Amino acid sequence: MSEIHNYNQSRPSSTRGSDYVWQYEYYDDDEPVSFEGLKAHRYSIVIGFWVGLAVFVVFMFFILTLLTKTGAPHQENPEPCEKRHRLGNCVVDIHCPQGDSLADEDKAFSRPLLDESRSFFYISKEKQGRGGGCGPHRVRGSLGGRSSFGLEEMGEAGEASERGDGGIDLQGLPEEGKSEREHSFLSHHFDIPNFVNSEHSSMTGEDDLLLCEPPALLDSQSCVQDGHHVIS
Amino acid sequence: MNDVSALPSNHTDCQVVKVPHLVFLVLGMVSLSENLLVVVAVVRNKNLHSPMYMFICSLATFNTISSLSKTWETLMMEFSDVGQLDSRGDSVRRVDDIIDALLCMSFIGCICSFLAIAVDRYVTIFHALRYHNIMTTRRAAAALAGIWALCGVAGAVMVAFCDATVIKIFFIVLFLISLLLILFLYVHMFLLARSHARKIAALPGSAMPHRSLRGALTLTMLFGVFVVCWAPFFLHLLLLMVCVENPYCECYRSLFQLNLVLLMSHAVVDPAIYAFRSAELRNTFRKMLFCSDSPLCYKVKALFH
Q: How far is the alpha carbon of A95 from chain B, nearest alpha carbon, in Å?
């Protein structure tokens, strides 16, 4: 190998420079890569890489679609418990009329759905009842979920918080205005029978504002737990 | 950037695939105009001075810088091919180094901006109640300043020490870590949004089955485009370090310019994925592009609405 290079260098080369052309000749005479005797196709890495990438993207899409259609069954179980926990932290009064209004809910829904309707209504009533002060957190989460489920709405969930709160100065807005706006937004979209609304709106008017400030910290923590449950 | 010298023609060889300079120029121009539009729109509209749009603006700025440098480099290569420029001159090499530094800086900046946008969206979803306390404008500005400083230093260091293997390893590790972080953040957000949507769908009269596909499609597109555009380039870097003499790797490396085209096309697609999704930005574009305050504006609006 070195003899070849020396040979090239010692040859009289009046027209060429030394260093620059040396490198060029290195590539020219001494081919480090031999293409003889290839077992597989020479573009096999290229083909393998692109096929693998395409399979990965399609696989990811199907996994996500499957998740949307079926969902992980264990997701639903811990959540009502956490919601009760959060509810207990937030506003205690809501617990009391539960017994009365549950009977009404059973009339609204058919019998076979009794258990599920109870748990779902529990969650939805929480959203109603906590549409006041604790609400905004869950409301925005559900905004991100409901408005289209497209991720662009997650970017717009931040936007919606700006729009719904009249611009960027969220800190400047009164808590009551925010809660009322989101409460009406919720009831309008959720289309829940009025008896649920009327019972909770009167009770959770100011209690939420007082009782829910400290649990704001717990809210985010339990929501992180929620997220952890979702992932696990 | 790199330029592999062509091997003597042999039917079993992998010739370097050359992409015409016109393709790079067109891509560069399109990407430059789109991203510049995004930057100008965010700067001019006071409503868009929030952390979310600041991160999008930063991404658009990095894309602008990368398309500018790539276009400039293509022009210089075109001139040197024609013979107007001496490609071995000192000043040309220095300019080439500056261009490479700007390109490295913008690549790292793009990756960091994607991460920042993902973190911002994550905080919006999971800490929505305290979002405006966590993500203040001042903190976002500080984060952006940090990102820009880091990218500027990294770009300069990379070009100064570009022969060292550790630079390539750093680049690849940064890419992999960002990829995994972005995937984790978005999938977590997706799962939460999904569980909410399922609860809502369980209520009577609110079933929207077609929406469920849209979220999966959006996330796949966001992440898929990122991976498809960036991974080939990073695999090239990896193969440069790992298998220098392997003929299969050589064949992969011969497609380097195609991988660069993919990188540039990501700068073209980026505004469509991030910026143009926002209704506020779209309205700002319409106002900026079609009219400012003239009576013509209302007629044009009437046409479009």
A: 21
